[in-house]
Amino acid sequence: MFMENISQEGGVVYMNIKDIAKLAGVSTSTVSKVLNKKDRDISNATREKVLNIVQEYQYVPYSKIRKNTYIRCYCLGVFIADIHFDYTELIYNIGKAASKKGYSIIVNYLKENWKQVKLLDGKDIDGIIIVGNTEKYRQIITEIKIKQIPCIIADFSKQKNVDAAKIIYEEEMAAYKAISYLIEKGHTAIGCVVSENPMINKGYKRALYDNKIDFDDANIFKKDITTEEGQESLREWVEFKNTAVLCEDEEKVICLYKILSEKGMLVPDDISVISLKDSKYYELLKPPVTATEPLGKSIEEEIVSLILKQIETPFPALEDVYLPIGIKERQSVKLPDKWQGKKIVVVGSLNLDISISVPHIPMGGEALIATGTTLIPGGKGANQAIGAAKLGSKVYLIGCLGNDSDGKELYANLLKYKVRTDGIEYENTLSTGKAYINIPAIDEGESTIIVYPGTNRALSRSQIRKYDYLFDGAKYCLLSLEIPIETANYTASVCQKKNVKVILKPSGVNKISEELLKKVTYFVPNKKELHLLIPGDETIEEKAEKLCDMGVENVIITLGKDGCYLKNAEYARYFAAADFESVDTTGGADAFISALAVYLSENVPLIRAIGFATYSAGITVTRQGVQPSMPDRIALEMYQDMITDSFT
Description:
Layout: E1 7-9, E2 12-14, H1 17-24, H2 28-35, H3 44-57, H4 63-68, E3 75-80, H5 88-100, E4 104-109, H6 115-120, E5 127-131, H7 138-146, E6 151-155, E7 165-168, H8 171-184, E8 190-193, H9 198-210, E9 220-221, H10 228-237, E10 244-247, H11 250-262, E11 272-275, E12 290-294, H12 299-312, E13 320-322, E14 325-328, E15 343-347, E16 351-358, E17 372-378, H13 380-390, E18 394-402, H14 405-416, E19 420-427, E20 433-440, E21 448-452, H15 461-466, E22 476-480, H16 485-497, E23 501-505, H17 514-517, E24 522-523, H18 527-533, H19 540-549, E25 554-558, E26 564-567, E27 572-575, H20 588-601, H21 606-620, H22 626-629, H23 633-637, H24 640-646
Parallel strand pairs: 3-4, 3-5, 5-6, 6-7, 7-13, 8-9, 8-10, 10-11, 11-12, 15-18, 15-22, 16-20, 18-19, 22-23, 23-24, 24-25
Antiparallel strand pairs: 1-2, 12-14, 16-17, 20-21, 25-26, 26-27
Helix pairs in contact: 1-2, 1-3, 5-12, 8-9, 13-20, 20-21, 21-24
């Protein structure tokens, strides 16, 4: 009964200290002392009782007088309607935009119990901004209108029949524009990383439908990426064949970038990324992220502009302002790579190369003083993968590393050269492989190599089976035998089933089965490897003929400074080496094989491809260290005219 006697207008409570005293069961002087902090002689229980009533009813002194005598206080109330969405950045930017106009903001969450909105009528605010979907709060909107408080809604879901001015940024339209943009860029396999947001899903589906692209629910990832389980699911999801992904916001973009980086996948080379909402942080990512954005003013500027119009106009219309949506192009989207011939898979060893510079190769019992040592990433698998990647191919490497500092260094080096590391696994019981290389002075012979296999011995059939999807769409597999021979045999069988041509380097073995040779399209031994595999006094030509008789389609024997020899059904031909001064011959064969694969995958004729391979090897041996010495596309094709003249 007591509350009926408290002054009310339009449902808003106006209290004085007499009302508080009655509710608390104390005198007005006690209330006054508590409010003015002169309450030393008042018990804690009484003080708490008075303050709780003040807080509950949000008592403001002289609120009724101030209500009836309007004085602009330059403060806006901002209420968040959707607690399931993070509007932190938007609210921050609204505050900045309001500050530029001389206003401050008060922020609160909108609840179905709208008492805090009623009580705001007695506070110093000039208008209310409600952010989010207000479907559950229509009665609150009505209350605000009755009290004639200027109010607008920042609406992201195109609500209907809401009696208030609205800023409308249609998430459905933003999703439609983003997906349409990706389709215009040539993408048809497009995924989404979103929350349970029906408006985004509608825009995504409509864009696919309008462009006659089938919808697949598996392409929408909706799990919570803030959990370890959600992130693990996302790691598996990115293995789908999508060439582009729409992310809902910066949290999902950053998580996706992190996972793609872990897997050695590159944006936008492997997968294009676009965000539904722009962020100030996107310029800081590598590459910067393309996103949808409102054209003209920013969302927060439009929000502040509209609420001020409602405040300052005597009889404002309840207008809806639809924000036009555009695309902020940065560097995270490109045309999809449809040139499947450029995809190459490498299966082989990864080592830390310990190079020792010596005057000459030591004889038995001889002790030499080294003139220098270097520790650099190597291994035939890694060398060939990096050689092909530097020439522009999309290269996937399958191999094993130790869970040690050397392994992590080699892994980082692969990422540096843009090798895709999906097929790399760490082995805890063995250390990373090593290669000890003796490099003689110029004109003192070729280098010699002693290899400690380490984790390369752990590359198994089961690992090849696990990553056999990497062979899909590839044209060539580069295979070397510094790994278990049974793994090499199984890899060749996988390639045969998937119509992937095998280029085999028979390093580190003295015999090889005819079963494996029959699965090989290009067999590339050096002279020493050839004589180990086929001992006897026959000539190089005769031994190459034997290999062809055993089922190899093409035999290319690398001869160092003497060039190479090709034998197949059409040719039996020598090719001279490129005229470069040799410093370190270690990586010549790997450079030859990687360049051969790249140009063959691009449908370059075999003889001309051998020319590019020959010059790639020649450039590589002019410096110490294999991987840094391998040429990129520009460096190699500087010799294109010479190659055309000599290799036809």
